[in-house]
Amino acid sequence: MAFSYHADQESAVGAHWNSAFTDVSMQVHPESETLPGEWYLELLATAPATRGQGVGAKLLAATKSLAEQYGAETLALTLTSSTRVQKNCTAAKGIN
Fold first, then answer.
1. Which among 42, 44, 43 has a CA at the least distance from the CA of 7?
2. Best exposed site among 13, 52, 80, 86 by fewest CB in 10 Å?
3. Angle of helix 84-92 relative to helix 55-69, nearest 10 degrees?
């Protein structure tokens, strides 16, 4: 699963996201996460049974393609952990 959006949609996405979660730890940050012209990848997750099969890389490629279709200048994401899977996926795509 991948969830992403253009910077122009951040306010609307944040409002809907926050209304869906009563647990404040799941709510988006009050400050902006995006820059103008940016496509932000909020969430990318794979089922444990599919890990190591390139599913995450395919989701990342599809997200990049969608961002390009909508005219985004950059694709951004925030890694909150330094797991092996995240390192492998991002290193393969040239993300530091």
1. 42
2. 80
3. 50
User: Which two structure tokens, joined as six digits, stand for 44?
Assistant: 């990318």
CB 57 within 8 A of CB 88: no
Give me the pLDDT at residue 26, please.
Answer: 54
Q: Is 58 left (phi over 0), alpha (psi -120 to 50) or beta?
A: alpha
What pTM was computed for the model? 0.66
SS3 of 49, please? helix
pLDDT in tens, 43-89: 888 888 998 898 988 998 999 999 999 999 888 887 766 555 566 66
Neighbours of 39 (CB within 10 A): 24
Walk across the sheet containing 2-6 and list its strands: 2-6, 38-44, 74-77
